[in-house]
Description:
The chain has a domain at about 20-320: Alkaline Phosphatase, subunit A (3-Layer(aba) Sandwich). It contains 15 helices and 14 strands. Helix 3 packs parallel to helix 8 (about 290-300), helix 5 crosses helix 6 (about 205-235) and helix 13 (about 450-460) crosses helix 14 (about 465-470). The radius of gyration is 23 Å and the shape is globular. By secondary structure, it is of the alpha/beta class.
Amino acid sequence: MRIYFLALILFFALNLFAQQPPNIIWLMAEDISNDLACYGTKGVQTPNLDRLAEQGNRYLNCYSTNPICSPNRSAMMVGVHQNLTNSQHHRSNRNKPLAEPYKPITYWLREAGYTCILGHEKVMDKGRKIDCNFKTKAIGPYDGITNFGLFDKVDRFEVADQPFFAQIQLKVTHRGDWWEEISRQSADRVKPEEVELPPFMADHPVIKADWARYLDQIEYMDAEVGMIMQELEEKGMADNTIIIFIGDNGRCNIRGKGYLHDPGLRVPLIVHWPGKLKVGQVKDDIISVTDISASILQIADAELPDYLTGIPFIETSSNRQAVYSARDLWDEVMEKSRSITTKRYKYIRNDMPWVPFDAHQGYLEFYRPAVHIMRQLKVNKKLNPGEAFFFKAQKPREELYDLINDPYELNNLADDPPYQAALVKFRADVSKWEDDLPNLSMDDFDLVVPAAVELLDWVRYEKPALYLEMLEGKEIGFQKLNKAYRKR
Length: 488
């Protein structure tokens, strides 16, 4: 009889554990494309993310809805395309509440009983970045009227917080003055001669060294992921915690962050759910970053509001055929471009073709050595057509790429007769998508004036020696110079 009761108690205990909602950790690395070892990138070592992928699912075709951080983060925080919520312009509307009926996903997660946690005490800068283009506050209640808090606490997840949702930003991969120091401190610094550049980037020592530094940041970030995984094990929560790893947008380099080409939109996505997902799967489903938001709500058994543009895909199959993405204002550079990405094609419509890809944006002048080097090579007529494309005086009005046969998007098919039927369909699809967007003018947005434009002029005229170093491909220290400029 005693054995019977013990067995009964054990049965109910196990059943209770099985019914506990899973914890969810959303790891968001900044400014990275699919540049991990498990995605085939040469020269980089990412053992912790590789292990997550081996024990979970790795997705090949996850795309941002905007190739710039704040609009894309706005879309992810709501689960709705940023152009529907008036949050498409970088660093805009920071004092404007989300319009009804939209709410951040943390509102619905809290309603479902989740503790919402921002950041982690042991990652670089504590990983607390929010960066949404609507009114928010890090901690506190949310009603969208007088209260705008997104999270309940910061920096630590504990057993008592269960079930919890933790959003942790992994900042190190974002361009910053720390890159060289991180690389120097690496026990196994990536060697420039071992990296492989994409074919639209010139094979130049400065560019390869900069790419190697980027991979050093990825290795540092991978170690942060490993630390979080270890903490889950030590606290006994690993078996009931889902880890979702993504990039917030593509790498900060040629054709990357800020552009609707593949390096700007395609981001890594790994989902690790112990005991729930068939392990080691590599999936080619078309995924939008807003689908991750919708999936988190579904996993948490939270409400999935009707306004979501994201489609759950982790527990259930998604029938998504395409991702619509947009590029709008970024700092001082006004832009309007739209794209559709399917498994086969990428279509881009550039409504402002007179704004070149290389728009000499103030902030980027400090953080893209490859641009400075390739400008010099262009002047000396040493760029091949694929490399020179980024530096043309104007963008094409339309771009169409066959992603299967041309994954680096080197051959624009928009003018090729065999592809005119596909082109017409994509044009119509973009127009139909835009019909549902709010009809807004720039008066509907509160914009932030970037300081980088004035800073660049100050460096050019007051620090000419440093400016010349920048033109030779050296990062001269944006943050340090910005502090000096403000104190002058």
